[in-house]
Amino acid sequence: MVSELINANPIVYEKKERRARSMPTAVEEYAVEAIDQQEVFDILSLQLFWITFTPTVEHCSMATIIGLCLRVKLSRSLPSRYKVDIRVAPGSHASESAVNKQLNDKERVAAALENPNLVDMVDECLAPSYN
Amino acid sequence: MEFYEGACELKLLQTLEGHTDRVWSLAWNPATGTAETPLVFASCSGDKTVRIWEQNPSPSSSSSSHSSWNCKAVLEDTHTRTVRSCSWSPSGKLLAVASFDATTSIWENVGGDFECVSTLEGHENEVKSVSWNASGTLLATCGRDKSVWIWEAQAGNEFECVSVLQGHSQDVKLVLWHPTLDVLFSCSYDNTVKVWADDDDDWQCVQTLGEPNNGHSSTVWALSFNKTGDKMVTCSDDLTLKIWEMDSTSMQSADGYAPWRHLCTITGYHDRTIFSVHWSSEGIIASGAADDAIRFFVEDKDGLVDGPSYKLLLKEEKAHGMDINSVQWSPGEKRLLASASDDGAVKIWELASLCTGQHVLPSIKMFYLSIYHGHLKSHQSVITFFLGQSSGNGY
């Protein structure tokens, strides 16, 4: 890991608020749970996840490792049938097309994830997300 | 042989389980599939093993759908990382296996048992593909170190490196020898296909098929030749297949190397990266892609007005539960296809001609998917998911 911060004062984006789900309040055997249309749509439509992330500086040397972390986190959390495309936001990185190409080449990702040092780094980055 | 749209159906004969990680690649033993020798193929996987599968010579083999496949051997404890690719020698006696552990191993079939008889070292890191030439005297390997190596097979299962070819600017995904000539083809993450030939024991790049000459605009993952070797098909991350033709009328060099030229592009059919393509001896092109579908294309004989074109014969949606990494036609008489996937399974299919009736595609599902894709493309910038809110499980 780098010893000094590349960008000491990054722009921190707000997390989108989680949509409230309708839950039955009464716990009774024959309680009817209303169909949550939004939830049904979510489940049906998400064949593909299109992830866009914005590096804090356009020469961010960690862009590929951040992308790799996103990919690993999603592959561990989602059913295997889902497809995931990961890209940096358009115009946000000096090597945008090279970063995007590498992040979406599954052979290179597979090879990277057989590298113990890289896996350690990814696990370290992801550790807070499992708390 | 003529094919008509809807006049074929794809029958799943068997799903072979055994690998515990994604299956990357398949190779049929070219010396099998005769009256005496049942069909054999090898599959290799992220689980670091190769599995050898053999068709049961069942008594009721007149009906192919009843013949079954067994795993005859598991080649393990040799490679320490993913086994990416494998290739049989033309005689079917040797199997070359390329691994991310930077080595290529050579296995010999000794009375049904497979023994590792040689290990080829030299690549700096991941070896991604291996291929034997038509006579079995030369072996090619390629990998992430951007190089292509040519090895000469010598007596006693010794292999000597005769050339290290530099030329690609990025990792090399696949190498394949021409079916009859000692001309080597390599395709790469640098979006090009390079053609390598031997001029007085000096191997060099004789042609680069890139974007300027109608080539691909993203990673080229695989290529395959037609039966006679005068045409080639390439597949890419740019979602197209491209057909190339050997231009034997304009000999470029004194040694008679015939350059290749772009013939046509099969575009608009694939939704995600095409990882594998294989041209059958009958002229049917099969493709396997990251959209989990297998597609079949044939030359469209009616469309010669604007030059040669190819049409979709059949599309099998959801052929696997995940990306399809390899599709390979079997040798022999039956029109069998093996497919390998990230879902860890290998499937054996038969492409059967139909006398009557039509293959009915799951039209509702296709309709739904097309709406979905349309929706997605028009809202790419809007559909931005962040970790922690994209799914209800695990957070």
UniProtKB/TrEMBL annotation, chain A:
Query: What is the name of this protein?
Result: MIP18 family-like domain-containing protein
Q: Which residues form the signal peptide?
A: none
Q: Which family does it belong to?
A: Belongs to the MIP18 family.
- SUPFAM superfamilies for the chain: Fe-S cluster assembly (FSCA) domain-like (SSF117916)
GO terms under biological process: protein maturation
Specify the domain of life of the species encoding this protein.
Answer: Eukaryota
Q: Which InterPro entries match?
A: FSCA_dom_sf, MIP18
UniProtKB/TrEMBL annotation, chain B:
Which GO terms are recorded in the biological process aspect for this UniProt protein?
A: iron-sulfur cluster assembly
The record describes the protein's role as:
Essential component of the cytosolic iron-sulfur (Fe/S) protein assembly machinery. Required for the maturation of extramitochondrial Fe/S proteins.
UniProt cross-references to SUPFAM superfamilies, sorted A to Z: WD40 repeat-like (SSF50978)
Example GO CC term: the record gives: cytosolic [4Fe-4S] assembly targeting complex
Belongs to which family? Belongs to the WD repeat CIA1 family.
Q: What species is given as this protein's source?
A: Lithocarpus litseifolius
Keywords, in A-Z order: Repeat, WD repeat
Q: Which CDD domains match?
A: WD40
Domain of life assignment:
Eukaryota
Q: Where are the WD repeats?
A: 16-54, 76-108, 120-161, 165-196, 213-254, 317-353
Q: What is this protein called?
A: Probable cytosolic iron-sulfur protein assembly protein CIAO1 homolog
**Does the keyword section mention Repeat?**
yes
Source organism phylogeny: Eukaryota, Viridiplantae, Streptophyta, Embryophyta, Tracheophyta
> Pfam families attached here?
WD40
